[in-house]
Amino acid sequence: MLNTLFLKRLLILKESKGIAYDENFHKGVNIIRGANSSGKSTITHFIFYALGGSFNNWTDEAKLCEEVYAEIELNGISLTLKRFISESGNQPMYIFLGDIDEALDIESAGYWKKFPYNSTNDKISFSNFLFETLNIPIVYGDNNITMHQLLRLLYIDQDSPTSSFFLYEQFDSGLTRQTIADLLLGVYDSSLYTDRIDKRESEKKLTDVESDIRTMRKLYDDLRLLNVNHVKNLIENNQVDIKLVNDEISKLREDKKRINFGKNSKLNFQKLNNDAITQRKRVLNLSNHIDKLEYEINDSIFFIETLEQKKIALERSILTRDYFKSFPFRYCPECLSELEVPDENHCKLCKQEIDDKQNSIITKRMLQEILFQIKESKKLLNIREDALKDKLSEYEANNILLNDLQKQVNVAMKDVKSFKSEKIDQLLISKGELEGMMIQYANTLEIAERYELYITQKAELKIKIEKLTDSISTKEYKQKKLGEKIKLSIEQYALDLLKNDLNREVGFKEATSLDINFYDNSIYVDDKKKKFSASSEFYLKNTARFSLFFSSLDIERMRFPRFILSDNMEDKGIEKVRAQNFQRLIIKKANESINKDFQIIYTTSFIPEELEGSSYCVGDFYSEENGRKSLDI
Predict the structure, then answer these.
(1) Is residue 297's pLDDT more than 90?
(2) CA-to-CA distance for 490 and 9, rounded, in angstroms?
(3) How would you classify the pairing of strands 155-156 and 563-566?
(4) I need a labelling partner for 560 at 20 to 30 A (CA). Which of 305, 342, 450, 537 fits?
(5) Cβ-based neighbour number of residue 416 at 10 Å
(6) Per-residue pLDDT tens for 545-592?
(7) How far apart are CA 464 and CA 471, in angstroms?
(8) What is d(CA 354, CA 572) in angstroms, rounded to the nearest whole number?
């Protein structure tokens, strides 16, 4: 279904709730006509604002109005839009599902819904609501597109310079303009955007998964430990070994025979004690080594700080020497007598010969020597700091081992065990080791299961990325083909309008191509941004904008809502006959179109005589002579 937007009725209320303007509009061509300064532009401002545009540059008459109602039809759905007139921008919008008469009924007051200009965490904007109704994708991120932005291509205003294809905004970006165009041309594909994001995130996730797989492989020399079935077999075998140890312990404890105490327990104590003494010496040596390294590090830091201070002092000395060298001593600082001026190679005070070049070389050599010492000292400091870290780690590990040995010595001193007890203890130690292995196997099993999950994820991600790549390529191709088709259609309409212009611009008659660069906000004729007269620039801009509109009548996939609003068919000194000729061309092409679901609204001061009073006209002809202006204020 074609995207369509029709303005059916525009109602403007004064502060007194009196009617300032109330006119019905129809499908097809709608002409608002009147003399200059009769308020035609004000009506287009109200239409633009009512449809969601951001506008606050109201005329004095418009400021006397309080609210504007626009009864519209979006893709066959009837809506009434209401906005309060304000000099501050970004006003909210009230939306009613129905026509204006129903909306103004007192009983319908509770059915209005208020939508903010911008979305919040808990409320959607009126742009989002209207986009959904128009089947236009919502663009999120840095280039969030609003209804105001879309209207910049649907509304041709008088204030924008003719060099600006879009309705002009001071703070604008090429990317925003391109996104607006892509949306309305139907080139923008939200699923393509989603696919690109999904592919980028999938590729990042694949990189992370592959990194995790490599890390896991580095954990084990035996890659069988990353096989879930292999680790489960190890666990089952370990459980069997634990059961055998438990059975043997139970058997020993149930044995009631008297067992004599032997020498093994004493030998065990002696061995533990000797091990503890050796370990204590090792810890003490490490502690002494650490103290020595810390002393050397502190000494190196102090030495580097001293060198840094010398370097700063030497640099300041050089600056001071350079300063005093240029200082003009004309009088003796002691007796204030005027000094004889010697040649440049002698001191002005003591008359001694000065060798500035030699002094400079010596000073720079000293500075280089200090910098070299700082560099070497820092290198030595880094080596010592790394050595300290290693020794601290070694000290920590050995200290833990010493504490553990001491605890075993303390226990052995209190417990002179029998052969049976020692055997049970040995079995308990074996059991503890087996249970420790069980914990390790459990952790290994967890890693192995995660590893196999990552392997599966890797395969799935690769398949997903391949599918997304194919999908993106297909959509980009379709996007490109559609873009070429739309570009050709716009160009054909534009060249026809240019060639049927009155003989005022040679470049129009001879034109062979026309291209709109939405990003640059420019129109190119014959691949060049040519400079035409002001009136021809105005004609070219209107030609391009209407060509975009007419192309939407032919190409169903375009999201352009088959609606165009043009304020003033004559501007920048364009001749009356030329403006009237353009109007006839527009109406002729509109009538020739097979698609009749469209709406053109434009204002003019030079309506062709045969059109005055026709069904195309909306409202009266506004002028001072008949005492009628667009707003009844």
Answers:
(1) no
(2) 30
(3) parallel
(4) 537
(5) 13
(6) 999 999 999 999 999 999 999 998 888 889 999 999 999 999 999 999
(7) 10
(8) 78
Beta bridge partners of residue 263, listed in sequence order: none
Average pLDDT, the chain: 86
Q: What is the pLDDT at residue 261?
A: 43
Tokens of 316: 């300041």
* Whole-angstrom distance, CA of residue 388 vs CA of residue 395: 10
Angle between helices 147-154 and 174-185 (to 10 degrees): 80
Write the DSSP symbol of residue 10: E
Instruction: Choose among 288, 285, 283, 300: nearest CA to 383.
Output: 300
**Distance between CA 240 and CA 52 in Å, rounded?**
77
d(CA 111, CA 105): 10
pTM score, whole prediction: 0.63
- Picking from 159, 136, 133, the residue whose alpha carbon sits closest to that of residue 55 is 159
The residue type found at 263 is K
Instruction: Note the Cα 502 to chain centre separation in Å.
Output: 49
Q: What is the DSSP string of 51-76?
A: TT-------HHHHTEEEEEEEEEETT
The beta-strand segments (E) located in 428-584 are: 514-517, 522-525, 563-566
pLDDT of residue 260: 44
Task: With cut-offs at 50, 70 and 90, classify the pLDDT of residue 240.
Answer: confident
d(CA 579, CA 542): 11
Mean of pLDDT values over 3-16: 94
Helix (H, G, I), strand (E, B) or coil at 148: helix
- What backbone torsions phi and psi does residue 445 show, to the nearest 5 degrees? -65, -40
Mean pLDDT value across residues 56-82: 94
Find which of 240-254, 355-369, 430-444, 501-515 is predicted with most confidence, using mean pLDDT: 501-515
Q: Residue 111: which of 97, 125, 99, 122 has the closest Cα?
A: 97
